[in-house]
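Cross-check.
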Amino acid sequence: MRRTAPLAATILVFAALAAASPLRAEEPGDSLAVGASEVGGYGEMVLQAPESKREDGARSHLLPNADFVRAAFEVKHRFSRELRVTVEMEWEHGGIGEARADSVPGLEAKEGGEATVEYAIVQWSRSPRLTLQGGKLLVPSGLVNLAHEPDDFRGALRPDVETLIIPSTWSALGVGASGKLPHGLAWTLDVLEGLDATRFSAAERFRDGRQDGAQALLTHPAFAARLDWRTCESVMLGGSIVTGDAWQGEQPDSALHPRTWVNEAHAHITRGGLDLRALYAMALLWDHDALSRALGVAHTAAALGKRGFGGEIEASYDVRPLVWPQAAGALRPYVRFELTDTQDGVGAIGTENPLYHRTNLTVGLEYSPAHGVVIKADRQQRHHEDDSGVSQWNVALGYGF
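Predicted model, tokenized:
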């Protein structure tokens, strides 16, 4: 635990400073009274229609499908002016049901849905300068992980970069602190449960290594830091680092220390009806060769690479005042380009699989008839380096309240 001492000391120093501050606990716009509770939630349903052929002309064997991707309910309660709790429960893929074999060709076997505690955060604050928090926290990485309701991001599906490189939605048990500084700066420091390296893969990088607070092993914690700078109300620039040793079990004969680093830089600019977003993320893995041997994937196309990386750039514009001035809400055409590679830098322990080097161009239209309700339709042109990509059409209905 010696590695946690500097961060713990920093949190205690900030706590002492906050205790001396007479400023109020509530953030601007936070009207939740002492002793009061508040309920909110969101949900999204998606229809996906893949092409019948891959880009190389072979049959894709994929069929259209519809999914109630998630329904979430959030409850907030304020115990005192300084202390509050926020809990979100989420049901995915239509809720909990019995697993069943699927007899329809082109569809995978149904495993039933999932019910999870997405996050459960107890927060103490006397000033916007400092908030102390503990529980199941959202990892402070990227743009989507902290704002993942369907009306927060463009597109029927979440971006590939913030699914494969940053494994959103990513939450973990831990404690931390956050606050606001002068000149538009905001910071976060967290100590969290670490990733589990035994579940890493070349296809999805660290995604299956999330422990999600489910009897999580705490042999090695992870550390997260984030800094954002708002130059004005319409421009936000920032970045984050999440790092930790991901070997949580007993050490094999040859000691393993697969340290992970998930680093990202992001920008979000809004001006009038224009919305621009950009993000670059890299997921680094030390001892990737030794870990590949321990997992039995060395010298195969499934060997783990030293690097995974991805970048995205997105633009949208609310044209409703121009083309439909009498209507309410917003009408936004959008376009997003992404490049991801989850298996880069394999070296001598395997062969890089071109399947995992992907590009994705998404072009679509989003209509929001009222705040919190959104309808999206888009076309995704998907390319894999081995020409196995399957493009598709998507339609989504989302709500948040």
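The chain has one domain: 38-67+129-400. The CA atoms of residues 144 and 152 lie 8 Å apart. Passed to J.P. for a second look.
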